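>> Question from a student workshop board

For tomorrow's exercise we were told to take the sequence and the ligand below, predict the bound structure, and bring the output to class. My setup keeps failing. Could a helper post the expected result so I can at least see what it should look like? The ligand is zinc ion.
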Amino acid sequence: MAILSVARMGHPILRRKAKPVDPMEIRTKEFQSLVDDMVETMRDLDGVGLAAPQVYRSIRLAVVELTDDNPRYPENGGAGELSGLQVFINPKITKLTRKKARNWEGCLSVPGLRGLVARPDKVRVKYLDREGKSRTRVVEGFLAIVLQHEFDHLDGVLYVDRLVDSKFLVFEEEFEKHVINEVDSEAAS
Ligand code: ZN
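>> Workshop helper replied:
Here is what the output should look like for this input. Compare the format with yours to find the bug.
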């Protein structure tokens, strides 16, 4: 396994529409070790998700892992039943609600920043898993937000394109100092 280097905003690969994975390739050693390397890279950087274009591979593949104690997203509480490693190949997403939830998103390709984005928080996703098996799931809450963020990467879209307002793009350090507290005191009042 290896830790891969992550493309940062400004690199053109992040703006390209990624190509579908050939299902025949999924079970190859090369593909499986790419998945393993992406998982290792995501964990090393405390990410909750990583899409292949972020590691300079323009294919429709993303890995996601919610844990109960991710230091980058303490405000989202525990992952509960959503926890566990998941691999999505050639995902197709359908929004199941018009109601949008606002979340402070971050991105390993946009280091040091957070931005407020509104997205529907219930979706259906159809995809191939890492064995090449076709699956369909309905997903809600934070995981639904993470999936939309990761799958946006496959279309060359970054969360900064979807900000509620450009005022809501902040440095992580300021976010921790001011915004989390604000959210807490709003919840308390
Ligand atoms: Zn991202």
